[in-house]
Design goal:
The chain has one helix and 15 strands; from the N terminus they run αβββββββββββββββ. The protein is α/β, with parallel strands linked by helices. The protein has two domains: 73 residues, no CATH class; 103 residues, no CATH class. Strands 5, 7, 9, 10, 12, 13 and 15 form a seven-stranded parallel sheet that branches. The chain has a four-stranded antiparallel sheet with strand order 1-2-3-4, covered by helices on one side. It has a four-stranded parallel sheet with strand order 6-8-11-14, with no helix packed on it. The radius of gyration is 22 Å and the shape is elongated.
Length: 207
Amino acid sequence: MLLVTLLTCVVIGFTLASYLVLVSSQNRSVMRSLAWNSAIPVLEAGVEEALTQLRHREVSELHSNGWTPVNGRYAKELRIDDSYCHVAIEVSGPTPVICSTAYVLGDGEYQLSRLGGTVLIRGDAVLHVTDSIGFSGNDSLQIAPGDSLKVYMSGASASFAGNATWNENGSPLRLQYFGLPGNSSIAISGNGAFSLAPSTPPRLTSP
């Protein structure tokens, strides 16, 4: 009788654990889908903005209408509601190339090789950066009210220059920075504003 009871408890425990894993995976997938669905319209808006500029301006006049020449490209930042988009037109070759990048991180775990530009956090996000972090000029990382971000940096260098801001005027507890063993350099210069909590990293599982 005792053996039957123990086996029953094991089966129930295993079933419950499997169900919790399934629910967790489903929730993560839903949150990533929401972030993806939020980013796609922003990407499309950036592409449309670039196509409009190319249609109505010669290549030599692309610097108008808020487009800024940067390293052979003409770049512009768009803000759509709480999302951001960086769009660039590259004209070094015979055919212009449009690159549009939207930044919307929701609940869940993410991995990027590089982090920079304008980033919006809309949820409780965990981000693993494997190569480099670079914020300069008027780049910014903003966290929506009530949300948070944990950054695990395993790349060699992170740099913050110019007027770049991270979590400006926000609580430091909402933005935690974990420098992993590979992160040997953090350079801060310029007039940027930062509100974060540097932390000793716990053991990092693959985001």
